[in-house]
Write the structure tokens for this entry.
Amino acid sequence: MRPIGVKRNVWAKIFFWGYPAISIILLFFISSDVIENWFTELLSFGAPLLILGNVLMLILAIIFTRRLKFFIFPLIVILASWKPISETFAFNFKTKQGESDFTVMSYNVATFNKDRMQNKHSDKNFNASIYQWFKNNKSPDILCMQEFYHSDLEDYDNTLDSILKLGGYRYFYMNPVYKDEFKGVFGVITFSKFKAIKSGEIKYGDSYLNKGTYHDFIVKNDTIRVLNFHLNSMSIRWNDSDTLSLADQLSFNAKNIYKRLKDGYFQRKVELNEIEKFLDESPYKAIICADINSIPYSYTYQRLKSQYGNAFEEGGLGLGFTCNRFPWFIRIDNQFYDRRLKVDYFETHSEMKNSDHYPIEAGYSFQ
């Protein structure tokens, strides 16, 4: 019969060596472009859990074993995971508000009513809070909004004129689609205090919400191209049905979310192909403001990051979650930028809670 100490040593090896070994293999596939398929995209949702699991392993190994051979492997995994860690948590302390050459905000306003598909009327409190924010704060030089809605039926729904006036904007461009059932227009819209020498639509997909525009602005004797677009939705919604048992409810939601994630992945891939073609033809430094509906370890995010810097990673601090609904712990709204520009600061306005997204703001300077 083996001594208890030997048994514990065997289990400790399985525990403190096995889990890190599996983690490093999974994180390799998640963080690299070696395998490009839907299964890797699905695995990417587990990246934070794998990293946190190894942090916990390291702590337990130090506390309970105090032996180098048991905490060295979790430590190696953590060090090797620097890329997904830096995409999850930003360590910048940039506070240069007021010193930038220009500022940019991106905000998915959820048609000023995140339940509009069920309730076709706007949320007056939402509109009032947006208007009040512009009254109390300095508006960004360039404001990109996704899932924008405008109607002339009610004063508070006259969002276009209201934001133009309250934000002090002189220019705007929108690719509107009128929907009679909602008595208003939808699309993405960009407001600006700078003159645009050219604006237009980025053509991809056929959804009236998943749209894109571009604008060439003259800023300090230079020209920047700002892209504003919204990719196919993740559509992660939890259905709390009173007619289903807990087991049936879990099964239904798991299958539904899986299907939506999978369909969205393939649709965003097609959309991104068209957007990248447009970016490749850009003669100017580009800034991308977008609800990409993908997490930082995803195929979509990694493709954009391979060519552009990410404002949150370079100028943010903390986790920067942008989703104000289930699942709350994700960052799907982003600003990517030409690396010939410099990020002075980045801020997630988590105080603005009416939409199911938080607005993100960044300041940029020319190198």
About this structure: The chain has a mean pLDDT of 87. The first helix runs from residue 4 to 31. The chain has ten helices and 15 strands.
